[in-house]
Amino acid sequence: MQSRKGSLSIESENMFPIIKKWLYSDHDIFIRELVSNGCDAITKLKKLDIMGEYTIPDDYKASIQVVVDTEGKSISFTDTGLGMTEDEVDEYINQVAFSGATDFLEKYKDKANEEQIIGHFGLGFYSAFMVADRVTIDTLSWKEGATPVRWESEGGINFEMSEGDKSEIGTTITLYLSEDSLEFANEYRVREVLTKYCSFMPVEIFLSKEGAEQEYETIDKEELREDDVVVENIVEEAKTEERENENGEKEVVEVSPRKEKVKINKRPVSISTTTPLWMKHPNDCTDDEYKEFYRSVFNDYKEPLFWIHLNMDYPFNLKGILYFPKVNTEYDNLEGVIKLYNNQVFIADNIKEVIPEFLMLLKGVIDCPDLPLNVSRSALQNDGFVKKISDYITKKVADKISGMYKVDKENYEKYWEDISPFIKYGCLKDDKFREKMSDYIIFKDLNDKYITLPEYVDAVKADEDGDAKTEDAKTEDADKENAQENKDGDKEEEPTTVYYVTDMQQQSQYVNMFKEQNINAVILSHNIDQAFISQLEQGDLKVSFKRIDAGLNDTMKDDADEETLKKETEELSEIFKKALGKDKLEVKVEKLKNESVSSMLTLSEETRRMQDMMKMYSAGGMGMDMFGDSETLVLNSSNKLVQYILNNKEAENVDMFCKQLYDLAVLANHPLKAEEMTEFVNRSNEIMLLLAK
Fold first, then answer.
1. Reported pTM
2. I want to staple 3 with a disulfide (CB 3.0 to 4.6 A). Which of 162, 331, 404, 531 is the partner?
3. Contacts of 676 (CB under 8 A, 6+ apart)
4. pLDDT over threshold 90, residue 353
């Protein structure tokens, strides 16, 4: 062929600044693009073989060789694909904005079933100029009588094309790196990038270093392959050992047989797993394979709880595996990693357009060849189509979880503590997910059993019918009698109170009182629960959530004379306000059945939720003081300490007892501040000294 020079057919002189600065924001992306082009070329050659237009030789091996040359400051990519003729180089390389893959599919669309072609984008090759001052292409086409072609360009604007010397079908692209991109002449850096983007490409990828010393390995002779290079034959003689037999006689026993081994050139190890687990049918995958895949991809050695294998062909092609990781909510960050692939080519982590926000808590891989990516594969187009993919993923996750509840409730309950934050977050963020999961939300109660919200409500209503009514139930009956009729003449149903606990240890005094009176409560200890119960209160089931320290239940109280309680409240209120120096403190005296309880703090549910909201928006700082005196100190008139204060108002240590009772009530409700705890400890020591006397 005749050597010729020319300028690339580029519509704007600003094309390469765009490629460098905007189209590919990450410079290491060129490795993905060039390897993808190589995979594309190999896929095309195999397709020609299937169609009978070309016969692949028996010794053919589909592979991509990546070679880094530290001394030469270059990196090369060699594929065993279909190569290019001079005209094809002119068309696909010199005319920048033309996609060879698109043209190929159009040409052969009626001759064979369409296989996925990775290289959708004609500009992929030009990502090489992000890191290289000079790029060469050496290629030989599969076509009979084809002449090898050499193409060379400096800076990506002008090119020179001539006859080359490549003797094997395929293409080699060599990048002579610019000074600010020499990191890509480092074997370890390139291995890192290949592992990131190309771990699961459908063609084997091998990385080597130019001029590296030959490495060797020793294998059993029966494991020898035709392509192994034998360096040395090794014989390991049998090993024997003198042992005593059952009769007490010594005899020589063979402990290791004679072995024939061979020393060979170390076999190259492919960076890519050509058939990743998600490409297999779920019935062909074992639990051990799922777990090993999880460990290798996410470097997480805690076993996942369970997983969902996505496998869909219509109306779009989507495969993947989503793992539910075991989460330690105290220490772990509730953020997962879902890797998005396009035809086994890694695109990005956690692309929000494809992955519903609440699924970001999971770990997994999703491969969707039909994704409408832009030319750099870094952004999505066609929002309507992408929304369908997102909705499908949401549906499959909901189906998996609800199915587990129906057929494997034991494991569902076992996993609940780990998966509940994810499910609740999903209900808050996704209406369709909430609709599917509403019947499968469970709560652990004070009896360490799991119940649903409807089951809790039914139990409360059953208690109402059996005269074991709570204070809220009695109030509910009175309210029902006075409720205004709606337009249809029906009375509005009052919500059922659902008691809850946020900290079993901190609120143990209240928990014990509830258990004594056979009143149940649910445990809501996660940060997301406050937002979640607000959503539940707005649902179809009429419920109102109330923390167990928000007030006293009538079943916890003994009958008492109201006038007496009012008088004692006035007297003790004055004493405690004076002793504590809290003029705005609200004090209330009740006659409790449990005489051992001396004092308690209560805070209305509304006030607590307002506090939580203020903490969220002010990070616990500005705006919190306005709730500082909103708690109510409840004193038990049945308790001997309370009675002592009532009967000994002027006694020497009354102030000290008031402070101690108040701090005990605070400790049963929430932690003391540092200075308050110091004072409490000192006062406790002082009281013990008084007892010692």
1. 0.74
2. 162
3. 663, 666
4. no
